[in-house]
Amino acid sequence: MSTQDQCRAARVPLDPNGEVLTTDTLPSPGLKRWSARRKAEVLAAVDCGLLSVDDACARYGISLDEFLSWKSAVGRAGLRGLSVKRVQDHRPRRVERARKCW
Fold it and tell me: Which domains, from first to last, does the chain contain?
């Protein structure tokens, strides 16, 4: 049983490592740099009802689109999808047009 399944069954918010989440253990508001673990903790808190989506966006100063992109990344690639090393790694590559020389 995954931590998300345990969380939903018991309604106890668990972080990605299986530890109990509280508002005190959530990442601090005002973060400038987001690690994959911090993003996962916020997603877990919202999934378990510790925070609403609106509360999470307001607390951390993120847009709804950004929050939904985190959720989508987890759905596509698991927790690994939350770590962004370079933007190009997660975007489809553009096909360069052949350049004409005159």
Answer: 3-90 (1.10.10.10)
